Amino acid sequence: MDPLHSAAAPVGTSRGPSLGAAEPPVRRVVVADAIRAVIFLLAVTLGAIAFQPLVDAPGLQASAGLPGTGYVVPAAAGVSCDWTCHRERKPSSPEPGTDFAAPYGTPVASADAGTVISVKSDPSTATGRLIAIRLDDGYTVRYLHLSESLVDPGQRVTRGQIIAVSGASGGGRDWHYGPHVHVTLWQGAEWSGPTVDFERYVGK
To answer: Containing domain of residue 161, as a range?
Structure first.
């Protein structure tokens, strides 16, 4: 009888080892799934480490002597010229700060709690009408080019309190600039010496 056409072997028996026999498919699937599971767990672990907030890392906490975080912007308006813009323009600004492009007549909010130390009610000089507040964290903030002040020297203000109305004052006129609010933050209790970038300390 031709061995290639002989009867099939009974179930449970074997004619001998099969040439080219492959690993059972089920075993390959199980191993592949296990590898994928390990890779997934590693990715999740590494991702959690990579995206951990920086504020939780040692040495990255706010340093003593820096202004408090969470300042309130004067108005819901875009920035037309930031702190760097004022420093790098020619000639550079004598009072580098941040210009918020608030429309004329917009209510202006205090950055934080503090005491009003100066109110200038006339539009003379480049600053125009202004308010200066000594914040409770020891820094001083000024708001320039206002159309109207709503507070008085010595008055206590709270974070977010409306203190003025935006304008365009300066140079002895009510409309010397395009409407905006210039905000300057000083290191210390007076408006002298270096300024700092107000936007760095605005609450998110």
So the answer is: 79-198
pLDDT in tens, 143-196: 999 999 999 999 999 999 999 999 999 999 999 999 999 999 988 877 677 899
* 66 in any annotated domain: no
Helix H segments across the chain?
A: 25-50, 83-88
Instruction: List pLDDT tens digits, range 100-115.
Output: 999 999 999 999 999 9
Rounded-to-5 percentages of helix, strand, coil across the chain: 20, 25, 50
To 5 degrees, how large is the angle CA 70–CA 163–CA 169?
Answer: 110
Find out whether 133 and 117 touch, Cβ atoms under 8 Å: yes
- What tokens appear for 133 in the block? 């507040």
Q: How does DSSP classify residue 10? A: P
91 preceded by cis ω (within 30°)?
yes
Under 8 Å between Cβ of 194 and 187: yes
Which two tokens mark 79?
């920035």
Provide the 8-state DSSP code for 18: P
Token pair for residue 177?
A: 């600039």
* Amino acid (1-letter code) at residue 22: A
User: Per the structure block, which two tokens stand in for 53?
Assistant: 């907030």
Residue 191 lies in a domain: yes
Q: What is the pTM of this model?
A: 0.65
Residue 84: phi, psi to the nearest 5? -65, -40
